[in-house]
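#lab-general

N.A. 3:47 PM
ok so I finally got the sequence cleaned up, no stray characters, all 242 residues accounted for. can someone with queue access submit it? mine expired

B.Y. 3:52 PM
send it over

N.A. 3:53 PM
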Amino acid sequence: MEQMVRRYDAVFFDSGGTLFDPSARNPSMQEVIDRRIDRLAAAVRVFGIDVDSGRLEQAHEALYGQTEHELGPRFSYYLLLLRVVEELGLPLSEEQTAIVTVAYAGPRYRHWVFPDTHELLAQLTDAGIHLGLIANTAWPGFAMHTALAGVGLARYLDTMVISCDEGVAKPDPEIFRTARRRAGLSDTARAVYVGDDMEKDIRGAKNVGWDAALRHSSVPTSAGLADFEFDHSLELLPFLCR
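B.Y. 4:20 PM
back already:
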């Protein structure tokens, strides 16, 4: 087999709509979100704390929007649940609340991952390309890592930059610069971002001098703004390597 030659030193991916298919079912992403209060109550009870699900849901609903507004891009499920725990007077430590946060955020399922994504990431890793994730999300990094590990993707991602942990979100140039610094890339290293959102992903990457690849899960075309467009994961391979 002919050895691949990399065209880029680093490839960073978006999460939902790029690695994960938002149209996946059985269960759907929305169904997982709809069950988060049930998971939250069950996780609290694991620590021997009896909690009324109705009170838990009321506190959650009252604090969600308020916390999101106050914290802006720093809003995370962990910081939200710290406030819920305080509001209800639950005897949970910060460490226990972190565990509860993972349950609240919920799982990601292997069948949600776009077909051939594992093979793509494995081949890029073998080619010596630094792989990473830049995600706008309220999932704190520890919960995101758990979810990605559960579907077998975390082992490929050397650098993960999560908006709520950084307090900055795409398309702000700083989150891309943070990813570059954290990956240890030189000033001359070539980086490309792969995403599905025109403003946050494609324009965001182009504005810091990166190349960009658009996955057609949200929009049908970049109208020439992206350097590459694709529908299926392995279509990326000849663009990233030769």
